[in-house]
């Protein structure tokens, strides 16, 4: 039995802390040790020798004995109490993983109150904040120190949960012990931890059995081999623990040890294929058949095993196998796990010899999981069953549920498994696929699926099907796709609450994106209803999307403060569900990062953008575009103008073909244009202006870009002429910050003309409009003469906005725009060549002194002192390719 200080084996022990997902006790139970377990006292001492503040990492391939070593180690009565969590693939849902961790911690005796587990729940705020914060908070209360063991960490692959794990590693409280066991290096920065001296590693070479260990294992298994035979077996397996255990099982059933050892291969694949066959051959037909049928399940409940095999006593048979062989592990009473090597062999054997039995087993498992209200597992098994009818039925049953939960990956995989044929004739499947594609920004695929639904539409559709179509068509219209000319009324009373919430959200988004103009009140009403229903129904994904849409509505209404507050609510809602950062919050995070940048806080903006960008391909294209652009501009504001411009340009090239609102296009163009001018790259600035004009036509933002360029060229009279049309209704101005920048350019132009009163008036107008929108950044980037006026204003104003302006000017690095003349650009283009100054002069038929003068000017403008540095600086700025 496990040591009483190492968790609990009672599935009912301790209530689940409020706000957490319920996890079965098998996840938080220390695995039992097999009868033939071979103790490794030297390795236990090695584990004990980890220094204060070090993370213990046990990293080795499957079958190396990691789990059993740790299970034996934590049973030491002299050691600290241990919270154990066995990780599986479903723990890529961060809330599930951290719920298991918190449940395991709450069950520790040191955190119990009056002997009852869960007594420390008052120190955890799991429903109000970040679950990683909650884990850290619990650990900080543990006195004496405890151990937290996460086993099978290699199962964690999701970006969200990996980011959480890295945060836990960075913030793990001093004095407590974190142990990570994995088949490969855990997805944390091991080199960085090693450099900091914060990692204590036990790897495959240490876990490999010695010849002496091999002898003890064989002796415990009742085998009496000669020393040279033990050495031969050890050499063939290279001390691989699983191979040795498999070999011991096979050797029990052979009469010719020498022949066995002669034919035995140390290759892992050979071990799996040969020895699993040998082991199965020694079992009765009933046990072999049972194992084959249940092998379709990676984690096996005895109840499911009984259903799969028709044996009411499946639990008893599995328990016998657990005691007879180390290949069946009892993770907790009534729950088992077949060794992966054996399971893969059994599945392949079942598919090869009994394909119909394999399909039936997968279908049965799908039905069982569906009855347990676990649609992701159900659809996974149904996809493997190869039964289109079953898969279609489960998609009908669970498709909308997965949509509103935001579990689009499993839904899309199930739809792909169903194939294009069913989607072309089943409007429900086509609509589910369309909404999933719309959410991912794949508009052509969404339109194709909508076309399938329209073509296969029944004459008398069910109410929920009509509602699903209405929601899909509204969302399609909001993304600019051709609309639906049929607007049949939808009876909300006949619909499930999740579909009603989806319908309200779709209507609100369609009203928000109406090209004819936003009808604010109806849109706000629809979105507010969607958020309320989603919150009441614990539909986190819909709640986040509804709040994000409300934030966008506030922006469209000119309520910047309300937009920021609602975007923050969206992020907070996602955090409550363990989904921040994630694709759920990419949109609101991008908006908040832009607001940080506008407030003159580039470091905050860059950090906020980076926390979502690390998610990679899961980020929606329009959000990724904004995040990269904000991140690039923030880099430039912090002094890396060349790197910032490169990131801005790359983002536009990658995402420019994706749909975007005119306001979004204009805002990103303004960011890139500004940084291009700071780099002295007039060609890049002109390219952005042409691109903006092609996308949105002549707007106030296009005039602003042209005026900026004139200012960079020193043509300040032309600046005022270019900006003059902004005083009339046409052209339209898309962004409130545009007028702020225009007034600042007018102030700079007036100062160059000696019109100080006009400059003060323009600056005063800019300050008033900037304060209304929280637009500090344009002031920090204003022209040099305008900065002198700002100095005078700041010397008399001690208000909050003035303090924000002063702070932004202190952190935003303003790079003076230095443009090379046309002839200087021509000379620069020849500098990478081997031509001398005289040869360059001959190219242009000018004197060598003229060329040298141009080169000196180039050096001065680029801030360099050599030809090589000039070429490098020009390439960094994008002036030279």
TrEMBL record:
Entry's Gene Ontology BP terms: regulation of DNA-templated transcription
Alphabetized InterPro entries for the sequence: AAA_22, P-loop_NTPase, Sig_transdc_resp-reg_C-effctor, TPR-like_helical_dom_sf, Tscrpt_reg_LuxR_C, WH-like_DNA-bd_sf, WHD_MalT
PROSITE patterns reported for this sequence: HTH_LUXR_2
UniProt keyword DNA-binding present: yes
UniProt keyword list: DNA-binding, Transcription, Transcription regulation
Keyword Transcription regulation annotated: yes
Segments forming domain HTH luxR-type: 813-878
One MF term in the entry's GO annotations: ATP hydrolysis activity
SUPFAM superfamilies: C-terminal effector domain of the bipartite response regulators (SSF46894), P-loop containing nucleoside triphosphate hydrolases (SSF52540)
PANTHER family: DNA-BINDING TRANSCRIPTIONAL ACTIVATOR DEVR_DOSR
Protein name (database record): ATP-dependent transcriptional regulator, MalT-like, LuxR family
Species of the source: Modestobacter italicus (strain DSM 44449 / CECT 9708 / BC 501)
